[in-house]
Specification:
about 260 residues, alpha/beta, Rossmann fold, 10 helices, 9 strands, about 15% strand
């Protein structure tokens, strides 16, 4: 399960598929790109301008348009292996890809159950899994999260670890529960944060570390399930959407969204 984000998730998914070992992936479900508590286009635009600033927001809008057009051209010319989308990555690897509006819809949950999966894996899914879906796989619903849980639970941990001046972050694979990022931890890897890294640099490092972890996790799933440890959420932290003040704190620490050479 993932979402229709064109900048990082196609790269992340391809790295996972390259490193998945013997694991068979039956289907990739793609949810709409969304942010927590953001419904209208106007609200999204207001958030983007406050988050990135007007110039970078315009640049990213153009970059997203480039990926959308590139994906359309690749489809028209049948260029398998040239991709700008989750569906393009799936086409390269011959994996069915289904765009769905609601992962918790009864017919979607039923279709997933019919496939009798061992694992349902969330890669930045844009919707919270409800109990009927969580109960479907024989092993677990698993999520990969870009922090050392239980610290920095919630939205866009990559941003928050930089905004709060952390020197170390990491990647966690954990069981999913109705509580966001609150399930038992199967694996963690630590990432030292380099002083010169932008948010973009950290995303790329997380993709590299996280994609290797997914393959290892699937290969060792029974062992890891037996050793899974429940996190003490009282020792953790939770973050949601950043405000303009949070972005100022991020920049005051010398951090940037992209590093310009």
């Amino acid at each position: 399960m993932t979402q229709d984000e064109p900048l990082y998730l196609p790269r992340y998914l391809e790295r996972i598929l390259e490193r998945r070992g013997d694991a068979r992936i039956d289907c990739v479900y793609v949810l709409p790109l969304s942010l927590p508590r953001m419904g209208s286009v106007r609200t999204r635009l207001y958030f983007a301008v406050n988050y990135y600033g007007p110039i970078l927001s315009a640049y990213l809008a153009g970059l997203r348009a480039y990926h959308l057009v590139g994906d359309l051209v690749a489809r028209m010319l049948n260029r398998v292996g040239t991709f700008h989308s989750i569906s393009g990555v799936c086409a390269k690897y011959g994996i069915p890809c289904k765009a769905i509006p609601n992962i918790n819809a009864s017919e979607i949950v039923a279709a997933i159950a019919d496939a009798r999966p061992d694992v349902v894996f969330s890669l930045a899914s844009s919707q919270i899994f409800k109990p009927p879906l969580l109960a479907v796989p024989s092993q677990a619903c698993l999520n990969i999260h870009s922090s050392l849980l239980p610290r920095f639970r919630g939205f866009n941990a990559n941003f928050w670890v930089l905004a709060k001046g952390e020197s170390v972050t990491g990647v966690t694979i954990h069981r999913m529960t109705p509580q966001i990022d609150g399930g038992a931890i199967l694996m963690q890897r630590t990432i030292p944060i380099q002083p010169q890294w932008s948010l973009h640099d950290l995303y790329l490092e997380v993709i590299d570390v996280g994609s290797a972890m997914v393959g290892e996790c699937l290969a060792r799933l029974s062992e890891l399930n037996a050793q899974a440890a429940e996190p003490d959420l009282a020792l953790g932290s939770y973050f949601s959407l950043p405000t303009a003040a949070d972005v100022r704190e991020f920049r005051a620490r010398g951090r940037r969204f992209f590093r310009y050479h």
